[in-house]
């Protein structure tokens, strides 16, 4: 989240931080607009507020928290519980090594159509292009 907050900060834009209270980690980063830094006790409420406001999800290589948020968003979009947003997995090699989506399709655990819910990218330009195309923004 810090990268997105920093980009907005450096562009002079206000930006939001949705943090979770944990015993030994997770503080708001220095780029969050102070009055827009929110702290949550429960992961579920944090993710709900995130999805209510998100226009896209760009997931970078990460640990359990990243995977939790990624699969929550995939599930909510797949089941039409939220409006679709572009779901972008940055670093193709990482994500394809981590998850064998073709195996999930072959085993009938996800539909071949579910593969269209997300995109692999390796450059910021490719990610931005997917977002622009999704929202039909001018090129």
Outline:
The protein has 139 residues and is of the alpha/beta class.
Main traits of this protein?
Rossmann fold, three-stranded parallel beta sheet, about 140 residues, two-stranded parallel sheet, globular, alpha/beta, about 40% helix
DSSP summary: helix tally: 6
Gyration radius over CA: 16 Å
Tell me the count of domains.
2
Contiguous runs where pLDDT drops below 50 for at least 5 residues: none
> What is the overall pLDDT average?
92
Distance between the termini: 26 Å
The strand order across the widest sheet is 3-4-5
Helix content: 40-55%
Q: Quickly give the structural class.
A: alpha/beta
Percent strand equals 5-15%
- In the CATH scheme, the class of the largest domain would be Alpha Beta
Quaternary state of this entry equals: single chain
How does this model look, in words?
By secondary structure, this protein is α/β, with parallel strands linked by helices. It has two domains: 1-43, no CATH class; 54-139, Rossmann fold (3-Layer(aba) Sandwich). Helices cover 42% and strands 14% of the residues. It has six helices and five strands; from the N terminus they run H-E-E-H-E-H-E-H-H-E-H. The chain has helices at 2-10, 43-53, 64-78, 92-98, 101-106, 124-134, and strands at residues 17-20, 37-40, 57-59, 87-90, 118-121. Strands 3-4-5 form a three-stranded parallel sheet, sandwiched between helices. A two-stranded parallel ribbon has the order 1-2. Strand 3 (57-59), helix 3 (64-78) and strand 4 (87-90) form a beta-alpha-beta unit. The longest helix is centred in the middle third of the chain and has 15 residues, at 64-78. The chain is globular, with a radius of gyration of 16 Å. The model has no long low-confidence stretch (mean pLDDT 92).
